[in-house]
Amino acid sequence: MSSLTFRLLQAADTPAFAVLLAGYSHALSHAETAPAVDPERARALLDDPAVEILGAFEADQLLAFALFMDIPEAISGRRACQIDDLFVDPAARGRGLAQAVVEEIARLGAERDWMQVRWIVPADNTVARRTYQRFSEQAPWVNHVIWLDPTQRW
């Protein structure tokens, strides 16, 4: 991983991001067939002012991404980070990329004076949960959801 670099994704990254985004959607939806690569959806995320997307690159190849938000933290009165999505290309797994992405976001957070970086992990993703337990602690809360679109559940 010596040639691994990180940067916030930009419009020029849309094609590569769209491919990983389709893989991420397929992995979480548990659908039998993979969704089509959708550059418009990828571009909409890249253009959304509420989020930032960090990419992990080896040479010019996008291997992983994390979508995160800089949010107010009510208890401390400071800022925090909420990672909402993190995905590593299956061909690049087993190399510590998920940890490297989170650590890069934490480094960015230290520069921004965030008080914490937090994220959610699907309960059935035992591999990811074991990975995160190696370098972070489990948060003392449980997530809940109300599905407003019954056709989109994962």
From TrEMBL:
Domain of life (superkingdom): Bacteria
Keyword Nucleotide-binding: no
GO molecular function annotations of the record: acyltransferase activity, transferring groups other than amino-acyl groups
SUPFAM superfamilies: Acyl-CoA N-acyltransferases (Nat)
Protein name per Swiss-Prot or TrEMBL: GCN5-related N-acetyltransferase
Domain N-acetyltransferase: 4-154
PROSITE patterns referenced in this protein's UniProt entry, alphabetically: GNAT (PS51186)
Keywords per UniProt: Acyltransferase, Transferase
Keyword Transferase attributed: yes
A matching Pfam family: Acetyltransf_1
Source species of the chain: Pararhodospirillum photometricum DSM 122
